[in-house]
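Work Package 3 (structural annotation) set out to generate three-dimensional models for the target panel prioritized at the project kickoff. During this period the team completed the workflow that converts sequence records into discrete structure tokens, so that structures can be stored uniformly alongside our sequence database. As a representative example, we reproduce one entry of 449 residues exactly as it appears in the project archive.
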Amino acid sequence: MKQILLTLFLFILIISSVSALRITGESVKISIPFEPNYNLTKEFKVSNNDGFLAHYDIYPIHVKGADLRQYFKVIPARMENVNHGDGRDFQIQLTLPEKIDHPGISETWVKVKATKPGATGIIAVPSLAIRYIFFVLYPWPYVEWGLNAPHMNIDETTDITIKLNNLGEPTINSAKADIEIIELRNNKTITTLKTNTKTNILKRQQPELKTTFSSNGLKSGNYRAIATLYWDKNISTRQKDFKVGSINIDINDYTKLFEIDSINLFKLNLTSGWNDELKNVYAKFYVYDKDTNEELKSFKSLNIDLLPWETKLIDAYFDTSGLEKKEYNLLIELNFAGNIKKEEGIIKIDENINAVIVDEIPGPFSNMNLSGVFTMYNMMLLLLIIFVMTLSMGIIMMKSKNEKQIDPNVVNHVKKLRLQYNDEYIKVIMMKKGWDPKLIDKIIKKARK
């Protein structure tokens, strides 16, 4: 018990100190496109909420690319004796040189590190940093680009776009692209599209090449756009897969083995084939005798919503009471967006140890009417009520147990903490970790003696 409490207090101190240091300013992530002799001055403030007197050292560190630490000046670079609850202002002055011989991204952090005066041994102290990210243009022609081919539905029109970014010093004279559309089902080219042409693209400019694509007459399925970009004397390619959807849901799989004379959880795995949301999707199930084709049971699933292209499980409850141990025919009727999709299959009822069974079908449902009372909202509400009741009982029991006896190890540790921290700060930290305020007052009262 003593070791657990000591570990808990150490964890509290580490977490509280790391999260208590604050740096405020216009932004703590600064992106800078390099320009010769660039100057920038930013004001910041460091705030001490660590609960102890602190010193702060502020200095640049090299992270990536060119080492630019020499071009930073921090005023002041050190702050001493900053009390808990106080803050100090500081300034970062940046003066870049005429040239940096390292094209691409460079990164420098200005780190603020706390130290605790008079501390001995191992102590957790916080540190934070302000990020400076530089980009130096390439001296030769250099283009980054990306292809965007969005998902769509049949009989729709959309834009396929290419976004360019001239990251070189030279001007790009001309850029255009051809985009080939391939149906992946049979690896067949559907069409080849041509984008508009952009000319005289200056450094750091980000123009967009665009073309229009129509899915009229196409089948739903998977497609690929392959773009060939022509810029000046250069050629490069990118590709992007996309889907053309129809109002359809695929039935991927479903539960096929069930326990006899039990209420079994039936799971149906679905995937939407539509590029829009499908609401209030549900399924009806009919169980037939394989020999006579007589309908023996019927039941209904919960209602769910499917996001575009989403794969999701839908639950139902199958009561096998009155049915024999054997195979049965199953008919699934999936209802969505005014459509009904049917699928037939075989299920088996037996002594099945892998079946997921429940004590009863949740809620007062009729055989074919599981909507209404048995909604997802009511299920979540019931679970929330159970959780709150369980949590309340646990708190009451814990409080009762704590009030009967105060561990002397806790009192002794609080005594040591009071040598460095005030009572109010100790109380706040203990409350954050779930201690009862009245019990904390009793512990602190004992620690004062």
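The CA atoms of residues 281 and 304 lie 5 Å apart.
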